[in-house]
């Protein structure tokens, strides 16, 4: 990644991104569960980072995808998000985020942060806009409560006793989002069986277009 490529970047690189790109994977230290908890609790989301090789591939993928599809949103709606959602502007079934199953889609993140073994990065995409403070771009208290209740219900409770200790979540501020057209939250889980992850991310009938 030569210095002269900065102007061609598909999104603004943060200082953390630039620092990561100066490293090799061997020099990189993966986020532990305790570190993730600290960053999320203190809203230090700008410090979350991908492995150097993953970040380089993500930059390349984003560049090529934008060239081919015009935007990452167009690609997501074509290949990753429910066909029933159609094209923007999206028309949710409910004005309340995560209330109607047809309005959200759970997917394993294609481009996870650099996480310690046993931690899985999930993204929950929402057809319903998630309210954010217009000035700072962070969630409102009401939307944070709504999202927290959904995460507890969908993820933590399904893991049984102690499930809340295996789940954390956050929503990036607007300035940190590489995809802004479709709202989404990030969910991190640890020591969850692959079969459970698959069940969470399974496409539902409500995600398919009605015939």
TrEMBL record:
Signal peptide: none annotated. It holds the Pfam family DUF3605. One of its GO terms (cellular component) is cytoplasm. It comes from the Eukaryota. The lineage of its organism: Eukaryota, Fungi, Dikarya, Ascomycota, Pezizomycotina. One of its GO terms (biological process) is N-acetylglucosamine metabolic process. InterPro entries: DUF3605. This is N-acetylglucosamine-induced protein 1.
């Amino acid at each position: 990644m030569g210095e002269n490529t900065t102007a061609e970047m598909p999104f603004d690189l943060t200082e953390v991104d630039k620092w990561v790109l100066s490293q090799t994977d061997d020099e990189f230290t993966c986020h532990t569960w305790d570190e993730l908890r600290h960053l999320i609790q203190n809203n230090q989301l700008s410090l979350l980072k991908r492995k150097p090789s993953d970040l380089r591939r993500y930059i390349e993928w984003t560049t090529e995808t934008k060239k081919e599809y015009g935007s990452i949103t167009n690609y997501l709606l074509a290949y990753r998000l429910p066909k029933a959602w159609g094209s923007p502007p999206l028309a949710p079934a409910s004005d309340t985020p995560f209330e109607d199953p047809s309005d959200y889609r759970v997917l394993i993140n294609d481009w996870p942060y650099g996480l310690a073994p046993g931690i899985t990065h999930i993204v929950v995409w929402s057809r319903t806009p998630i309210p954010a403070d217009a000035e700072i771009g962070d969630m409102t208290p009401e939307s944070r409560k709504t999202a927290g209740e959904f995460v507890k219900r969908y993820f933590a409770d399904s893991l049984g006793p102690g499930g809340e200790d295996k789940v954390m979540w956050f929503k990036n501020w607007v300035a940190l989002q590489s995809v802004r057209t479709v709202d989404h939250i990030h969910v991190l889980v640890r020591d969850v069986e692959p079969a459970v992850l698959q069940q969470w991310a399974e496409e539902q009938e409500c995600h398919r277009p009605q015939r």
